[in-house]
Amino acid sequence: MRVVLLTLGILGSMFAFGGLAEAQNYPWCAQYGGGEMGGGTNCGFTTYEQCMATLSGNGGFCNRNTQYVPPPGPHPNLHFRGARTAPQY
Questions:
Q1: pLDDT of residue 48
Q2: CB–CB of 60/39 below 8 Å?
Q3: Which residues are CB-contacts of 27 (< 8 A; sequence separation ≥ 6)?
Q4: Is the residue at 60 inside a domain?
Q5: Which end of the chain is more exposed for a tag (fewer CB within 10 A), N or C?
Q6: What is the pTM (predicted TM-score) of this model?
Q7: Where are the beta strands (DSSP E) in 40-84?
Q8: Could you tell me if 57 and 18 are in contact, meaning their C-beta atoms sit under 8 angstroms apart?
Q9: What is the DSSP letter of 67?
């Protein structure tokens, strides 16, 4: 009887707390400097500024995540920064 109750308790908790595990998807990646052996990559940033703030003092650079797919539905237009030039007068 105890085994049946334990099994039911385990199955019940699996259904109550179980869910799909999904990977996070963010548009910016930090490429940490690492010399000859290479460095780490962290693609967990929502903005370019957030990525650059994380790299501050560590070295490395930020670039777009080539695997990023925006969520479905309406969303604001994201304008990525290009090279800045001096104003033309």
A1: 95
A2: yes
A3: 45, 46, 64, 65, 68, 70, 78
A4: yes
A5: C
A6: 0.54
A7: 41-45, 61-64
A8: no
A9: T
In a domain, 13, yes or no: no
Q: What is the pLDDT of residues 13-58, one digit of tens each?
A: 766 666 666 667 899 999 987 666 678 899 999 999 999 999 988 8
In a domain, 44, yes or no: yes
pLDDT of the residue at 49: 95
Q: List CB contacts of 54: < 8 A, sequence separation 6 or more.
A: 30, 42, 45
User: Distance between CA 23 and CA 26 in Å, rounded?
Assistant: 10
Q: Is residue 27 part of a domain?
A: yes
Nearest in space to 46 (alpha carbons), one of 75, 5, 89: 75
DSSP-derived secondary structure letter, 24: -
Residue 78 has φ and ψ, to the nearest 5°, of -95, 120
58 contacts 31 by C-beta, under 8 angstroms: no
Range of the domain at 49: 22-68
Tokens of 71: 């969520």
